Amino acid sequence: MSVAPRIPDWVPNAARRTITELWARPWLDDAERALLDRLATYDAMETGVWEKLPSEPKDCEGNVIHWAWVAFVCFRRRPRPFPKTKSKAKLEDWARHLPRDPLPDFAHTRGLARLVRDQMIQHWGDAQPYWQPFWEGDKNLTLDQVIAVIDQVSAFYRKVDEECQRFFRSLPDVKRWGGKKSAQKFFTEVLSKRMIEIYGRPFDPIVTTLVEVAFDLAGGVSTETIRGRRRKSGTPEISRQK
Fold it and tell me: How far apart are CA 49 and CA 210, in angstroms?
């Protein structure tokens, strides 16, 4: 699936922008693009999510799409722990997950930038005579300035990696990676937590619709099931009433 979805007019602008931005990421696979297609086009999103979502804070519809995408993608792409019980079935299931492209590795990018910087510093004297005749970029830049920029790039990716690691630590713990419902439970916990943080209420019916759309559940899922998953996760419900 490579053609971007035709987003209906009833999709809020903030959600539309987020879907378009996420679709442009080149590393998504067909399943993840199919998710975005469902979030963009399924009628249930209009009646079960957008019509029920509070109007404040404004433009939060884009965040809802982003949370759903993160919950779906992170479960699929996070590294699985090596199975404690080394049965053939568990080992094969663990091995099948290895070829899947991982989430962006900003620590690796930082390391590459540092390696380039160190090599440029080490061979500065050898490269300096060739800078003016061979450099095809901005002629006002010196070799020293480029080295400084690469050092800043390394620092940038270090901070991005630290922020991403904090984010991953905030995600729900996964006790069971296998089974058809493990991903749904993870998705439910992430969305319920975000709803409570932003709106002060879990909005179980909205999360129910998002689960049904995200996993294309023809038979649906009950709001009672979603409420039960939330309560089992121990996520507190924050009240904003004074």
Answer: 7
